[in-house]
Design a protein that fits this description.
- By secondary structure, the chain is of the alpha+beta class.
- The protein folds into two domains: 181 residues, 2-Layer Sandwich (Beta-Lactamase), CATH 3.30.450; 181 residues, Hypothetical protein af1432, CATH 1.10.3210.10.
- Helices cover 50% and strands 11% of the residues.
- Strands 1, 2, 3, 4, 5, 6 and 7 form a seven-stranded antiparallel beta sheet that branches.
- The longest helix has 43 residues.
- It starts with a helix and ends in a 6-residue tail after the last helix.
């Protein structure tokens, strides 16, 4: 192996290590999946094609049936990783699969260069078809950890070497690690969302329409955010954070929340404290930043006439502007002790022309209001699909 090839293999390994390090440094604040990081790692190894990288890589995992390996073949096209195959399932009792999982019994890695004895029929037709050219060499390594499987790289330039095996070993470690980490993070994320849903439901318990209102507001907010051109991550976060908008009402007496009739000045002053209470309850956790913005700002008005801080225009956090519109629509549609529910058409009419309490052009972000009118039938569908039964 020449010095140049050694240096290339070393650089590939260093790039894999940097990818892992960046993921670990960012793990507390970045939401990622095992798939996206694995694609980056695959790209690093494949991009040497024509000099040192393999022509394609097959990545397979053990299925629920432990007798099967299920995976896909990946290659580069215009510098980007593409799936070269659909799912390919291999029986682990086959000769080929035994080579792939040989690490379970002895060697960590298998390197094979073409010899007279290497019969092309040894490989499954689906894999051979994806490789495209005649298979001249391959390196395989077992994927260990909680998610197990095998990885195999085909057709290195010249001969497959120990240096190529070292790089593939690094790729296998990265893939195993990121899938394990992302699975654990996914479970943590589920627990986190369950916790804030429980808190939101506790705050709604003293009011009517328990549970349904907060789920609908989540859906409306997600639809507005998605159609406002915001990132998928932001849409996801606001779609579960919106339900925290009234978390501060947990500190407002039920006698005020459920009063049959209009509130007096003292009672209005108390209920107008709930945004500040919500901000206090949600604290300073970075994970709750959007929820905190929503809690404190969802009663602010575009013209500065809202509360509690009298913010105006873009001073109001975008999340608060989105949830304000969503919350008002749902309030108009919902039955309360002091009012009857409105139809969708009646609610849309108020968003267009206003009434004694709502001045749409002065209360709502005009860009979001325009999006609402494009999406109003989606709002109607969300309301109708989440009405009539407790959630």
């Amino acid at each position: 192996m020449s010095q140049e090839l050694c240096e290339m293999s070393l650089r590939q390994t260093q790039e894999l290590l940097r990818l892992t390090d960046e993921a670990l440094q960012d793990i507390c604040c970045k939401r990622f999946t095992g798939e996206e990081l694995s694609v980056k790692a695959l790209q690093m190894v494949l991009k040497g094609k024509g000099r040192r990288g393999p022509a394609c890589i097959y990545v397979a995992f053990n299925g629920k049936d432990k007798g099967l390996l299920c995976g896909r073949v990946y290659s580069l096209r215009d510098g980007e990783v593409v799936e070269r195959s659909g799912e390919i399932t291999i029986d682990t009792l086959a000769d080929y699969a035994r080579i792939l999982v040989q690490a379970e019994t002895r060697a960590d890695v298998v390197i094979s260069n073409k010899t007279v004895e290497m019969d092309q029929e040894f490989f499954p037709p689906a894999v051979k078809e994806c490789v495209g050219d005649e298979i001249s060499n391959f390196v395989t390594y077992r994927i260990s950890g909680e998610t197990t499987g095998a990885i195999i790289a085909f057709n290195y330039p010249g001969r497959a070497t120990d240096y190529d095996a070292d790089v593939l070993r690094g790729l296998a470690v990265v893939i195993s690690s990121v899938f394990t980490i992302s699975d654990q993070m996914r479970e943590t994320e589920k627990a986190f969302i369950y916790t804030i849903e429980s808190l939101a439901r506790a705050c709604e318990a003293a009011e009517e329409d328990t549970g349904r209102h907060i789920v609908r507001v989540n859906r409306y907010a997600g639809a507005l955010a998605a159609n406002f051109g915001l990132s998928a991550d932001y849409v996801d976060v606001i779609s579960y954070s919106a339900q925290m908008h009234d978390v501060g009402k947990i500190k407002v007496p039920a006698s005020i929340l459920l009063k049959d009739g209009p509130l007096n000045e003292r009672e209005l002053a108390v209920i107008r404290m709930h945004p500040a209470y919500g901000e206090q309850i949600l604290g300073d956790s970075p994970r709750l930043q959007i929820a905190r913005e929503i809690a404190i700002s969802h009663h602010e008005n575009w013209d500065g006439s809202g509360y509690p801080r009298g913010l105006r225009g873009d001073e109001i956090p975008l999340s608060g502007r989105i949830v304000k519109l969503a919350d008002v629509y749902d309030a108009l549609r919902s039955k309360r002790s002091y009012k009857s529910p409105l139809t969708h058409a009646e609610a849309v009419g108020i968003f267009r022309d206003g009434d004694h309490r709502i001045d749409p052009r002065n209360h709502f972000d005009p860009n979001l209001l325009a999006i609402f009118f494009r999406l109003e039938h989606m709002f109607e569908s969300i309301y109708d699909s989440l009405t009539g039964e407790d959630l």
